[in-house]
Fold each of these.
Amino acid sequence: MKKCLILLLLITIKAVGLAQEKPIRLGVAGLTHGHVGWILGRENQTDMVMVGIAEPNKILANKLSKEFGFPMTMVFDSMEEMIAKTKPEAVAAFGNIKDHLKVVQECAPKGIHVMVEKPLATTFDDAVKIANLAKTYKVHVLTNYETSWYETNVKALDELKNGTIGELRKVIIRDGHKGPKNIGVSQEFLEWLTDPVLNGGGAITDFGCYGANLMTWIMNGTKPLSVTAVTQQLQADNNPNVDDDATIILTYPNQMAILEPSWNWPIGRKDMELYGTKGAIYADNPTQLRIRISKGYSQFTEETFLLPQRKKPFNDPFSVFTAVIKEELKLPPFNVYSLENNMVVIEILQAAIESAKSGKTIHLTK
C-alpha cells in the first residue's frame, strides 16, 4: 500500500511538472513587420509554440513559409478565423502600428495576452483604449524593443542607482539607421512604415520610441515636464509623407534628455549616454559600456566593460512574454516592456509630433 502511494505521488509530481512545462500556444497577427523573423525563426525554443498566423497577403505568407518552413495550412485570412481555429493563449502582433488596437480589441475579451512590436500605438487615445481593455479583461499587453535585451542598458541603470556618476543631469539617446528604403526593408514593411497614419509618423515614432521608453524606465515612470521637438525631411524622395529626422528634448525637474531618432545615420545605432555630477556612462551597443569619472577640468579615468547577453528569460522577448503569462515573472512597474511605461512613451511621442508641427514646447500634465 505504501509503495502504491509513493508511486502515485511520483506520477502526480511528474504530471504537474509536465503541465508546467506545456508550451504557450501563440498566434501571430500579421507578417508585414520586418521584425517578424524573430518569432518565425524561433524553432529551437520549447516554452512557446506557434499555432496560427493571421495574414491576408498570401503571396507574402507563401514567401515567408518557404524561408522559415511553416506550413501554409496555419495561415488564415483574419485574426477572428485564426483564433477560432487554433485557440491561442497569446498573440504577437507583427503588422502596422495602427492595427495594435484592433489586435487587443480582438484578443482581450477572449482572455488572450498580447505582445506588440514598438511602439504601443500611434496615438495616445488608442493607447488609453488598449490599457482599458487590458485592465477590464485582466490580460497582459507588453511592448517589445530590441534595446530591452541590452545588458549594457541594465548595467548603466545599475551604476546610476549605485551613485557611480553622482546625480543624473543629462541623458542623450541616439537611435536609427540610413532609412527604411536605404537598408532594403521589404515593400510590405515600407508601405506602412512611411505612412503617417499606419505608423503614426516617420523616424520620430519609429526610433523616438526607444529613447522615450528608456528615459521613462530610468526615471521610474516620472513624466517629463515639457517636450520640444524639431523634425526634418532630408530624404523627400524616399519618405515623401513623413519626417526622417528628429530631435526631441525632454525636461524634468533636475534632468534633461535629448533623443535623436533618425533615418539619416550613416551607421545604424542604438546607444545611450548618461551624464551625472561626477562622471558619465556610455552604453555604446548591446555589449560594450564605458564609465568615465571626472578627475579635474577635462581629465578623467575610463573603464570599459564587455558584457555578455542578458540571462534567460531576458535574452529573448518571447521568453519574457511566456514567463509573464505563466506568472513565473512579475515585471516591475515602468519596466521597459510594461504597459505603464509605454503609455508614457506614447504621450511623449504625441507631444513631440505636436511640438514639431506647431513650433511650440508642449507641457505635459501630471
Note: The mean pLDDT is 94.
Amino acid sequence: MADAPARSEPEDRQFVVALARGLEILRCFDAEHRQLGTTEIAARTGLPQPTVWRLAHTLQKLGYLVMESGADKLRLGPAAVALGGAALAGQESLDIARPRMQELADRYQAAVALGRRDGDSIVYLARCQGDSPLLMNLRVGSRIPLYRSAIGWAYLASGAGGERDLALAEAGAPGPEALQAFQDAVDLYDERGFVIHCRPQHHVNTVATAIVVQGNDRYAISCGGPASALPVEAILDEIGPALVKLAAELQPIFLLGRRYA
C-alpha cells in the first residue's frame, strides 16, 4: 500500500487525518482482496490495530463496510458499492473505449486493460478479454503493481522528467535488476512509444502505453496474453504500434469527457 496521506502531509492544517485513514482502509479492498480481517487491514495500512477497530466500526455504522456472514471478515458494503458505481457511471468515455479495446483483444487473442494510478498500483477501470487459451484472473478493480508491470511502467515512463527521476529512484529500491528492467522500459518507451514486460516463467508477454489526456492527467493501456500469441517480435513490429494507435484514438475521447464532466 502507498503511504497514507495522513502520515505524509501532517503539516496541512486543512487535512483531516481521521477521514484519510478511513479512506485508506476502504482502499485495501479490491478484486483480489474482497474480504479482509482487521489484522490484515492493519498490516496493509500500517495503522495500529485499535485505530483500525474504531475506524472499521464507524465505516460499518455508515454502511461502507459489512461483516461477512459466518466469517470474521469485512467486505465493502452498499454505501461503498454505490459510491464506486456513481464514479464509473460518470465516465461515459469508458463506454466508447470498450468496443475498441475489445476489437484489439479479439484481433490478437489477448486481454486489453485500461487503468489509472492509485498509490503504488494501477487500478483497472476497464478490461476486455479476447478468445485466448490463457485467461488471466484479473478484472475491473484489480490492482497491478506499479513498478513490476507493463501497464505501470508505461504510466511512469510517460511522466515528466522529475516524476521519471523519482520513479527510477523508487524502482531501484528492490535491487539493481528491478532498476535496470524499468530503465530498459523507459528507453523503449522513448524509442517506440510503448513498453514490454515478459514473464517467461508464466509464458506471458504484455505491451503497454500511456494515454496522456492533458498535462499530467493520463491513463495507461495494456495488451497481454500468451507468449506464443504475443511474441516479442510481433509486439515490436505490429502489436505495440497497434496499441499506440488505439491510445491516440482514445485520447480525444477522454479529453472531451474531461471538458464536459
Note: The beta strands are 65-67, 74-76, 111-118, 121-129, 143-145, 195-199, 204-214, 217-226.
Amino acid sequence: MSTATALRWGAFRNIARALRAVTRPGSPGMGTRLSSLPRLVRATARGEYAGTSLGRLALLVGAVAYVVSPIDLAPEALLGLFGLADDAVVVSWIATTVVNETEAFLAWEEQRRRTVPGDVVG
C-alpha cells in the first residue's frame, strides 16, 4: 500500500471515529459542538478552561484556512490522489480535534453548571 493510500485510509478512519462519537446516544450533536466553539475560545483565552491551549486552537483555525484556501501544498491537478491525501489528513485532524476538544469542553461546562457556588469540590 502506498503512503498516500495509507494516509487517506487513516484519515477516513479518523473521520469515522469522530462521526461515531458525535452520533453516540446521549452525545452532543455536531450543531451543539460547533456552537460551543466560541465559548471554548473565550474560556480558554480568559484562562478559565485549561483543557486546551490558544496555540492548539490557532492550529485548528490554520488547518481550516488551509483546507478552504485555493493555495495547496500538494496540488491535486499535478499530484492526483496524493494531492487529495494531504487535504484528507488535515480534514480528519480537524474533525477529530473538534470532536475531542468540544467533548471535553462540554463536559467541563456541565460540571461547572452542577457545582453550586460555595460548595467544596474535592
Note: The chain has a mean pLDDT of 79.
Amino acid sequence: MSDVEPRTEAGDVLTEVIMRTFRLYGGFLEAAEVMTKPVGLTAAWWQVLGAVLRQPLPVSGIAREMSLTRQSVQRIADLLVEKGLAEYLPNPAHKRAKLLRPTAAGYEAVSRLAKAQHAFTNRISAQVDLDDLRTTLKVMERLVEALDADEWPG
C-alpha cells in the first residue's frame, strides 16, 4: 500500500492557485519596491508599518499577521525605529514584548505612497471585473482560515 495521498481535482486546482499566488506575490513585491523607493521605504518596511497603522502590535503579533518569522520582523522593526519611522511603546499585557507603532514620519511615508499605490491598484483592477475581485478576496479569506485551522502533520 502506498503512503502517497491520492490526487483530487480540488487539490490539483489548489496547487495551481498556489503557483499563481507565488507569481502574484513576486509581481506585487516588485511593484511595491518601485512604489516605496521614492519615499525612502522598502516593500518589507511598508509591510511592517502597514500592519501597525491601525493599532500598535508586538513583533510576534505582526509576524503572525503577516506569516513572517518573528526574527525577520524584529530586524525590520528595529530598523524602522532606528530610522525614526516607528517607535516602541510599553505593552501593558507583556513587559518584555513592546508594542510597535509608526511615528509621525512613518505615517507620513506611508501616506506619500498613496498616490502611487492607488494609481497601480486602479490600473490593475481596471483589467478585472469588480465582482471577480470581490470573489477572489472572499476565497482568499477562506483559504487563510483553512490554513490557520489546519494541523500540519510535520
Note: The longest helix spans residues 9-36.
